[in-house]
Amino acid sequence: MSDRITRKLTTILAADAEQFSAAMTADEVGTFTELQAARDVFFKLITHHGGRVANTAGDGLIADFPSVVEAVQCAIEVQQELAARDAALSFRIGVHLGDVICDGPDLIGEGVNLAARLQTMAEPGGVLISQQVYDHVKNKLTIGFEYLGDRRPRNLAEDVAVYRVSLGAPRPSRPAERKRPADPSQSARVWLDPDPFADAPQRDFRAPAGDDMADGDQQQDGFDLKGYKARFRRCEKPSKMIAGAAAGLFLLDIVTGRGIWAHWPILVLVMLFLLREGPRMFDRNAFLSLPLRFWIIGGFLFLVNMFSWSGYFWALWPIGGLFLVSLLRRGIAPQADEPQ
Fold first, then answer.
1. Radius of gyration, alpha carbons of the chain
2. Is there a domain that residue 2 lies in?
3. Fewer CB within 10 Å, N- or C-terminus of the chain?
């Protein structure tokens, strides 16, 4: 027995094959060959992105990465390569940044459990990430992310924000019911658990539920008011801080009586708030094919121009420059996202 427990903060990638037991029943040799080919893809890209394989259990895999960005990029490239090969096996992937216990080369702990639970929620061929991962990659990867809402996993006291990495249409799952091998390893036990979100209320954000349609003030013309409120609640604390700061600045402006100046610092605070929390508030990183940051900074420049109006619309030039830069980056991004 060791004298001390070794811990580390790392990015955990959990992957699992869809309908593996059913496929083994139908074609044992062929499915095993497909699993080996898929593992070769995983091992190659995990190594390429600076990660390591911590555990392989049956049809699943756990890897960890020192870099959050590299872990998500690895997950994206794995799914893209498997889709390009039209592999018979589809994999679900979950990625989480958390503190884990090191048991030799193996990893144990809540961080591993949560990554595995995200994996169970993913669609075949899809990738789900936690809030901790999203906060690190949202401005570093050009791919999009979709906020699926807050879910409460089994045996956890707090809700977990879940994001889907936008990879296009998910791969169809096989119709047969999935079963699991009977002799799991230490890390694999978390994958054998029933879906931890099965008992928690869930909502399909792409289509309104029947109860919401019955409630006219919650669902109007396809707009999910409940979903918007859930997203806004995540930004409630910083928005209250901004409102408090704005009220304080206006009060100071009135007390000093030296002209109206409070709108300038308030405008800057609002812009910084939207740059940080905008993607979570509006559930998108782009609007009309242009980055959300373009609209926020453009709106800031427009208001500065209006507040300091001198008969000349000078904001047109920096906004136009931002527009051209956004178009150039949009043209370069697809080439940068191609797997090496």
1. 24
2. no
3. N
Q: Is residue 89 part of a domain?
A: yes
Looking at the whole model, is its pTM more than 0.70? Answer: no
> Residue 111: which domain range?
7-170+185-192
* Percent of all residues in the chain with a pLDDT value above 90, rounded to a whole number: 21
Model confidence over 254-274: pLDDT tens digits?
877 767 777 788 888 888 887
Establish if 112 belongs to a structural domain.
yes
Q: Is position 200 within any domain?
A: no
Backbone angles phi, psi at 146, to 5 degrees: -120, 125
